[in-house]
Amino acid sequence: MAIVVNIKKLREDKGLMQKEVYNEIGIKQAHYNKLEEGLIEHSYEILDKLVPAKQRFQTFIK
């Protein structure tokens, strides 16, 4: 099952720069760019770092 997450939109909605995000989640710039462009799939580990549990839960309630 594929999980599609537009991390670029999430980042832009929060007013963050790419560098802030990839440094915070501990991956290299090239890897992060590939994630944003959809060239590679997001791992659950990366998703957990990108979207806090509380926010993930609230998404399902709406």
Walkthrough of the structure:
This protein is mainly alpha-helical. The protein has one domain (7-52). Helices cover 63% and strands 0% of the residues. The protein has five helices and no strands. The two termini are 22 Å apart. The model has no long low-confidence stretch (mean pLDDT 78).
Which helices and strands, and how do they pair?
Blueprint lengths: L6 H7 L4 H8 L3 H8 L7 H7 L2 H9 L1
Write a short abstract of this structure:
By secondary structure, the protein is mainly alpha-helical.
Features:
62 residues
Radius of gyration: 11 Å
Largest sheet, in brief, is: none
Helix count?
Answer: 5
What share of residues are in beta strands? Answer: under 5%
Total count of domains? 1
- pLDDT below 50 for ≥5 consecutive residues: which ranges? none
Shape: globular
Structural class: mainly alpha
What is the terminal separation in angstroms? 22 Å
Number of strands: 0
Q: Helical amount among residues, as a percent range?
A: 55-70%
Order of helices and strands: HHHHH
